[in-house]
Amino acid sequence: MLGEYRIEGRRAADIAASVERAVGSGELEPGQLLPPMRELAERLGVNPNTVAAAYRTLRERGVIETAGRRGSRVRSKPATTGREYVRVEVPEGVRDVAHGNPDPALLPSLAEAFAAAGRQADNHPVRYGEDAVEPELGRLARADLDADGVPDGPVMVTSGSLDAIERVLAAHLKPGDAVAVEDPGWGSVLDLAPALGLRTVGVGVDDEGPLPDDVRRALAGGARALIVTDRAQNPTGAAVTAARARALRSVLADHPETLLIEDDHGHRIVDLPLHPLAGVTRHWALVRSAAKAYGPDLRLAVLTGDAVTIDRVHGRQRLGPGWVSRLLQRAVVHLWTTGAVDAVAVSDAYRRRRDALISALRTRGVAAYGRSGMNVWIPVPDETGAVARLLHAGWAVAPGARFRLGAPPGIRITVSTLGPDDMDPLADAVASAVEPGPARRYV
């Protein structure tokens, strides 16, 4: 079962450390089956409860996964590796369209925003024990949420979308619980859930969002949470339509104890309306990040949800970092109130770039998708070959493996820095790298 490697230790911590060392060194490979707890306990001369505690620690750290009677295995993607490492190194002279970043030319200058926040801090310094949310930011955020039909709920601030999602999951779920996630979907979420000791259940996606039948199967099969990207879904560009939202709310109504998490990171860069799902289940959360509209280094997201969820998340945040810098929050307020980003112009710029590339690919017999946001998803029969051929042709694209659980192969292209003169050469390269055939869905 373990080949030449022998797990050692008498205490739970030592046993867990022995397994973790072997995973890190490669002596225990991804997918490798670990001994049953009673068998290992007998071999080590310890109580089975000691081994059970060690395995529990390893699950919580995302090192192993347990599937009932099928036993415990080393995770195929341990949290220590991460999908961020499934990437293409971009040689000199190769155009990088894999990065997933916004167009720097569409980002605002931050100098005045932070200068204004600094002046405000000089006049009204923040002290321990004050509110964690800048009052004006909370007011503006809640007004935006109200306008988009998001149910009423407290507002708090986190250090980006992923921070919010992690905190909400940890507030309600325990290791071993299953989470329904989009497939293909955001690679960081696909890594985060197992790192928290959670099991991921993939649900298919089309241009209108998660497929209701897949969501129904996942929830009926025991998934306790569902994570949905409302707009600018990464990597496919899907955006939940009004009809799809009604269908998904109907599914959720049959499972009211589901924890619903909505990610609206496309806020202020997408010209499609929000169709929130919140309000059907007992516990829900919706998060909006500032990263795409104002820059990835602006680590701030607004989180709202039901009172219990926000209270739990806020309480845990208070015991850790305490709060997200009010200086940062005040800078965002300045950006919002001065109109530093023209949301209409930004969303139009990304839409024109996506549409131009998708159209150019279509004329060459290549199906591509990208209804919103800054990415285009292209199903391919041979992902590794397509990535390699495009790299040879001077284009670095993102391998679909970063975003998939069981979905078919594909590649992701970020259009944010592409100009009109880039579309035909890139489309030619993609068409040469991808074997043309019947249009393939990405679910």
Describe, in short, the structure shown.
The chain is an alpha/beta fold. It contains 15 helices and 16 strands.
SSE topology sketch:
Layout: H1 12-25, H2 37-44, H3 48-60, E1 64-66, E2 72-74, E3 95-96, H4 111-123, H5 135-147, E4 155-158, H6 161-172, E5 178-182, H7 187-195, E6 199-203, E7 205-206, E8 209-210, H8 212-220, E9 225-229, H9 242-253, E10 259-263, E11 283-289, H10 291-294, E12 301-305, H11 307-319, H12 326-337, H13 343-363, E13 375-379, H14 383-392, E14 395-396, E15 398-399, E16 410-414, H15 423-433
Parallel strand pairs: 3-14, 5-6, 5-9, 9-10, 10-11
Antiparallel strand pairs: 1-2, 4-12, 7-8, 11-12, 13-16, 15-16
Description of the molecule:
This protein has 443 residues and is α/β, with parallel strands linked by helices. It is 39% helix and 14% strand. It is built from 15 helices and 16 strands. The protein has helices spanning 12-25, 37-44, 48-60, 111-123, 135-147, 161-172, 187-195, 212-220, 242-253, 291-294, 307-319, 326-337, 343-363, 383-392, 423-433; strands at residues 64-66, 72-74, 95-96, 155-158, 178-182, 199-203, 205-206, 209-210, 225-229, 259-263, 283-289, 301-305, 375-379, 395-396, 398-399, 410-414. Strands 4-12-11-10-9-5-6 form a seven-stranded mixed beta sheet, sandwiched between helices. The longest helix is centred in the last third of the chain and has 21 residues, at 343-363. It is globular and about 65 Å long. The model has no long low-confidence stretch (mean pLDDT 93).
